[in-house]
Amino acid sequence: MASLLPISWFNLLFTVFPFIFGVVIVRQLLLVRQLRSGGIEIVGRVVRQREVKGRSGTYFVPTISFTTWLGQLIEAESAGHSINLEFFDGDEVVVFYDPNQPRRFLLAQEMAVGIKYWQLALAALFLLLALVGAKK
Question: Taking Cα atoms as reference points, which of 67, 78, 84 lies closest to residue 32?
């Protein structure tokens, strides 16, 4: 049966997934950059954790509570999703939040970007290999 697509499903998947992964990483890097230049650093507290089951196992996403400089109480999950970070209910955490959108915040541990550049390079490599493979 002839394919209606000029490239195989395999190449299509290996083109789409690295592209989406790269876009997510770039958005995270832009948020880190924005919060470093104009964000406000404050101490928050872990109030509860949501269990998430994924392919690589189970992890917990903490809900953080903090009060902004303007006195607004925020209780939300981090924009970075806190994957692979371990907390206990009641733990104090350092939060960097956007003063214009306080529910948009990252934990101090999520502000490290070194690994994100490697992830972006890996996504670009997979995308390049998929595109080169599609031409053959």
Answer: 78
